[in-house]
Amino acid sequence: MENNLAKNYSPKEFEDRLYKAWEESGAFHAEIDKTKKPFTILMPPPNITGQLHMGHALDQTLQDALTRYKRMQGFCTLWLPGTDHASIATEVKVVDKLKKETGLGKEDIGREAFLERAWAWKEEFGGRIKNQVRKMGSSCDWERERFTMDEGCSNAVKKHFINLYNKGLIYRGNRLINWCPVCGSALSDIEVEHVDKQGKYWYFRYPGVDGGEGITVATSRPETMFADTAIAVNPSDERYKDMVGKKVILPLVGREIPIIADEYPDPEKGTGAVKITPSADPNDFEVGQRHNLDKPVAIDEHAKMTAICGKYQGMDRYECRKAWVADLDAAGYLVKTEDMTIPTGECYRCHNVVEPRISDQWFVKMKPLAEPAIETVRKGECAFVPERFDKTYFHWMEDIKDWCISRQLWWGHRIPAYYCEECGEMIVAEDTPAVCPKCGCTHFKQDEDALDTWFSSALWPFSTLGWPKDTEELKYFYPTSVLVTGYDIIFFWVARMVFSSMEVMGEKPFDHVLIHGLVRDAQGRKMSKSLGNGIDPLEMIDVYGADALRFMLLFGNAPGNDMRFSTEKIEAARNFANKLWNASRFVIMNLKEEDGSFKPMATAETAKLAAEDKWMFSVINDAIGDITSNMDKFELGLAEAKIYELIWNYFCDWYIELTKSRLYNGDEETKMSVRYSLVTCLKNLLKLLHPFMPFITEEIWSFLPADEGAAKFLMLESWPEYKAEKLFADDVAAIETAIGIIKAIRNIRSKAEAAPSKKLHAVILADAGYKASALAAEDHIKTQANVSEVSYIDSKDQVPGEAMSDAMPGVEIYVPLDDLMDYKAEYERLLSEKKRLEGEVSRIEGKLSNQGFVAKAPEKIVNAEREKLVGYKDQLEKTLARIPVVEAKLK
RNA sequence: GGGCGGUUAGCUCAGCUGGUUAGAGCGCCUCCGUCACAUGGAGGAGGCCGUAGGUUCGAGUCCUAUACCGCCCACCA
Fold first, then answer.
1. Sign of the C-alpha dihedral, residues A715, A717, A720, A721?
2. Each residue's pLDDT tens digit, A578-611
3. Which residues make Cβ contacts (< 8 Å) with residue A65, sequence separation at least 6?
4. B75 C1' to A457 CA distance, Å
5. How far: A399 CA to B2 C1' (Å)?
6. Which residues 549 to 588 of A reach strand B, CB within 7 A?
């Protein structure tokens, strides 16, 4: 190993190496340990279709940060990874590939051969995404990795299906469902996306059978007319009262259809009369049920016109629409057209327009399942973070419709229902039945359909832990601790896991649901393939490192809110890593001999700590408290901002600088103490940062001297402990004073435009309470502000005549600058200072003269205000005294 | 038509249960190649916290309206 870190932070040099070392050592593996409390996260299984995108990267980062944090806190931490077979999405891809390679469709090669290809796809792409997850540094337990179609998960699906069926919660029905003609499958309601499209209303006249005027109705889908079975009007609608019960003629088709009265039509809308097409519209379907109407079908599963459409048979629905409207118009039935925005349903996978279609499908009866699922969230057993998402959840759950779970696909869990080939009897069972209980024959055919992919992912919280077997894992790790996912899949997945878990396990699947937003592009647009604005996390890792990407994704983001990706942000994160890298390099440089061995170092017992050491310890301790509390509240963005500030603005900007004089000029004993202090601080910082930036922290850690009994890796070390009692109050005050004075002198220097190399003379006037601190600050003032001499004075009479000044609470700082003095700048500064202080004084005086405030506000706050007032008044007085002096110099 | 979120510095965003002079990153201005780091250091400018009311001793934070922007849900011919 090298002696020290390389000069530049270069994550490629170590990220992959460290991941491999972690994984091979078994550090990610969670073995049941009943002496510890479990902490469990189940990874939302990425689809095997794609590759890692920014949304995954964010999701992974959140989970890994939580996992690493809890692991360091001593929990038995399981982060269980896996992938999803993604039934419909994968099938589409495999069909495309097949078409491209052989020109054949899936029907041509048959189910068996097709599934073989699908599994091959799974091997290839499932493997790819897993390696991408590794690139992120995710510390998940690969030994427990699962796949939604592996044997265990498949058993769970079957078992669950059968249980629900036996309880009457799964049923088969002939109903109107959403049908995607391109995917060739049924879809559930939430798989249909609603978009408004520019379209038209066409008003057509349906002439009366009696030769009368008939009735005019509007439609946005004229091609469905072939399947019309009635015209409905509201019974209260006076206009049509006399026409109810009469018949009209379907124009050009010639079929007679009745005019019926139903509550459904709204007299205010359109013409008040609605054409009823039970096979093409959910409302019409229900009207049809109520009135016992036939359900002829005009559009087939490929969105082509059926035989009932006469000469239009075989035409595409839109092609037909055009021709049909033209024909009706020519025949004089088109009354008028209107431009209109039409709400349209699209398939969430392929974005083609969905056509409602009547068919035999399987459904889950939702009401009974939803109730306990609503209850557990309402009781707070299962809590959304941030809380507002429970409204989204309730809204959906409380108004839930039955779930269509059958898909006309091959890739997925095949429905465990068997039909007797003789009598058609249906048997739901795990395996093919031997004998038909009804007719005694032995030939069965399994249901052709597969299950909705979300049916299996709904079981993820327990199927991955062994259910239906009563495993130790299930007893120990269930219910899981946190589910981390985006708000876009609350309905698809989160809600379904909750109701499935309540049904199967009788208990909520997770304590918390941490919801994150979308990662958008720099302009705030959703990243999408069609826009081509997606940013590949792997490319970012390649350029900036996984740590920088991870850090950037959490920085300054509140849970549930969308964020924008920008290279500026990731650069900032990388720069931060570089900063830490170099600060660590400085520490290590001072720890090691030429030959790489460690120089002697003090211990906790022997170290003689200076004020700055104690100050840094104290600052770190406070940060430990804050960061821990942020982590526990899932405020990872805030925790990260604090560690950033701690490392950069405290450790690098001040502490390291403050140690240098002792490090360079101190005797050996002093140096030994400084080394101890630097290492101790750095180690704590690395621990605090590790959940966010695992690689760089682990790499730096490996260069530091190991404590006795240390874990093999930083990732296995324990989280720093917060000590509630305030330590080192005097030393902390001294360093804070020193920092204040140093800043004041630098400020004066800058205002005066004095050269940085120019040695200055500082004159300090400290109030009694600050005197000791100010005296203790002398060395630091000299080294940090390039001051050659510090004088302490007791009253402002002793202020050297020509000086610029600045002040901090309790301390005034004067710098005589005989020739470099910029009196004009000083004068202006004094004036603005005067204005500021006057403002403060009057603000606080106003507050204090307010009887309400004095009477009602807590005494602590009132006193604090009084003290501030004294301080400000004092400063103001000093400033006022100084103004004429400087003014005189101006002339 | 319901519901939710946003509106804070030039840009992107934090700001927990109301309480020091409202913060960060980037950008901007001035100065600095020095021995951890120019992927850097020092100093600085910049905000009536969308608008109007209200509650309170005290409001970016709570309430009520309102205006824009965005998202989700919904069977409107």
1. positive
2. 999 999 999 999 999 888 889 999 999 999 999 9
3. A550, A554, A636, A691, A692
4. 29
5. 13
6. 556-558, 561-564, 566, 568-569, 571-572, 574-575, 577-579, 582-583, 585-586
